[in-house]
């Protein structure tokens, strides 16, 4: 947790809150997410959350992912406002993962996503035992690109027709960070705090 931003594991009881946020944000999220058959309200329903939660738990048990609910804790209440996953984890000589995230458009611009990503990266580089985090983002997705650029992720690659999103194969820009990049600064969250203080 940092300020009002809290990362935690998902709970079965998150179904209604997750569904409300997803359904309310169709126009905000759908253009950037992998193509899925069916209607948005169906695969973002409370019933669909059961399958999402089951898959996340299975991935975490196998050591293949670190899924987090992104919450805001304000006025003594916790509210689910997004999702962050460190997935496709590979160990041994690679020790790497891909980060993916989304946030409720109603809280965008408040520093929630960069704070959540900084918390997750510090966890990954510390207790998670990872060395490298990659983030792949569509060139047109300015808000998501600003998140990683604010935090100092390196732009490393251009992936043509990388992922099937919103009905077509879409290009992505590859960003990355290694543990050495932030070790001298006390971690990514410490870097983010300094950058925000300088911007004030």
Strand content: 25-35%
What CATH architecture would you give? 3-Layer(aba) Sandwich
CA radius of gyration: 16 Å
- The CATH C-level name is Alpha Beta
Range of helix content:
25-40%
Category by helix and strand content: alpha+beta
Strand order of the largest sheet: 1-2-3-4-5-7-6
**Average predicted confidence as pLDDT:** 96
* Gross morphology: globular
User: Uncertain runs with pLDDT below 50, 5 residues or more?
Assistant: none
Question: Could you give me the name of the CATH homologous superfamily?
Answer: Gcn5-related N-acetyltransferase (GNAT)
Sketch the topology as an H/E string, one letter per element: EHHHHEEEHEHEEHH
Summarize the structure.
With 200 residues, the protein is an alpha+beta fold. The chain is built from 8 helices and 7 strands, in the order βααααβββαβαββαα. Strand 4 (96-103), helix 5 (112-125) and strand 5 (132-137) form a beta-alpha-beta unit.
Write structural notes for this entry:
This protein is an alpha+beta fold. It has a single domain, classed as Gcn5-related N-acetyltransferase (GNAT) (Aminopeptidase). It contains eight helices and seven strands. The protein has helices spanning 15-24, 26-29, 40-43, 46-61, 112-125, 142-151, 179-183, 188-199; strands at 5-8, 66-74, 77-90, 96-103, 132-137, 154-165, 168-178. It has a seven-stranded mixed beta sheet with strand order 1-2-3-4-5-7-6, sandwiched between helices. Helix 1 (15-24) crosses helix 4 and helix 5 crosses helix 6. The longest helix has 16 residues, at 46-61. The chain is globular. 32% of the residues are buried.
């Amino acid at each position: 947790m940092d300020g009002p931003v809290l990362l935690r594991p998902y709970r079965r009881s998150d179904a209604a809150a997750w569904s409300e946020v997803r359904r309310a944000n169709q126009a905000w999220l759908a253009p950037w997410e992998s193509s899925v058959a069916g209607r948005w309200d169906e695969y973002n329903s409370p019933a669909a959350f059961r399958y999402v939660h089951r898959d996340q738990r299975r991935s975490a048990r196998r050591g293949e992912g670190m899924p987090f609910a992104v919450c805001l804790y304000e006025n003594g209440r916790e509210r689910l406002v997004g999702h962050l996953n460190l997935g496709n984890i590979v160990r041994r000589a690679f020790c790497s993962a891909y980060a993916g995230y989304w946030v409720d458009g109603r809280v965008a611009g408040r520093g929630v996503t960069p704070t959540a990503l900084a918390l997750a990266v510090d966890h990954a580089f510390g207790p998670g035992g990872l060395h490298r985090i990659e983030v792949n983002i569509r060139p047109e997705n300015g808000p998501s690109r600003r998140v990683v650029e604010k935090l100092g992720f390196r732009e490393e690659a251009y992936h043509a027709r990388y992922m099937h999103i919103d009905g077509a194969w879409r290009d992505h820009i590859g960003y990355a960070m290694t543990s050495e990049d932030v070790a001298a600064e006390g971690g990514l969250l410490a870097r983010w705090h300094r950058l925000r203080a300088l911007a004030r």
